Amino acid sequence: MLNPVRHFVDIMRRLMLKGSGFAEVARQLAILSAYAGVMLSLAVNRYRKVSV
After folding, report:
1. Number of Cβ within a 10 Å radius of residue 43
2. pLDDT, tens only, 11-33
3. Is residue 7 within 8 Å of residue 28, measured between CB atoms?
4. Residue 38's domain spans which residues?
5. Phi and psi at residue 33, in whole multiples of 5°?
6. How many Cα atoms are found within 13 Å in the side-chain-facing hemisphere of 10?
7. What is the 3-state secondary structure (H, E, C) of the chain?
8. Contacts for 4-12 with beta carbons within 8 Å, 24 or more apart?
9. Residue whose C-alpha is closest to residue 8's, from 34, 28, 27, 22
10. Are 11 and 25 in contact (CB under 8 A)?
11. How far apart are CA 31 and CA 51, in angstroms?
């Protein structure tokens, strides 16, 4: 469940094979967005420590 590729593949499968709409993939998109936010904040924090 922590692997973002799993959620991306699930979204693509639902969109391409099943023709799902936004409502059906909203949960996976939210999970991917949260993961992206956490990774971005960690990357910015680490970069600040290196660049100072």
Report:
1. 10
2. 999 999 999 999 999 999 999 99
3. yes
4. 4-51
5. -65, -40
6. 15
7. CCCHHHHHHHHHHHHHHHCCCHHHHHHHHHHHHHHHHHHHHHHHHHHHHHHC
8. 4/31, 4/32, 4/35, 4/36, 7/31, 7/32, 7/35, 8/32
9. 28
10. yes
11. 30
Structure token digits, residue 15: 């969109």
Q: Which of the four pLDDT bands, split at 50, 70 and 90, describes residue 49? A: confident
What is the tally of structural domains in the chain? 1
Does the pTM surpass 0.85? The reply is no
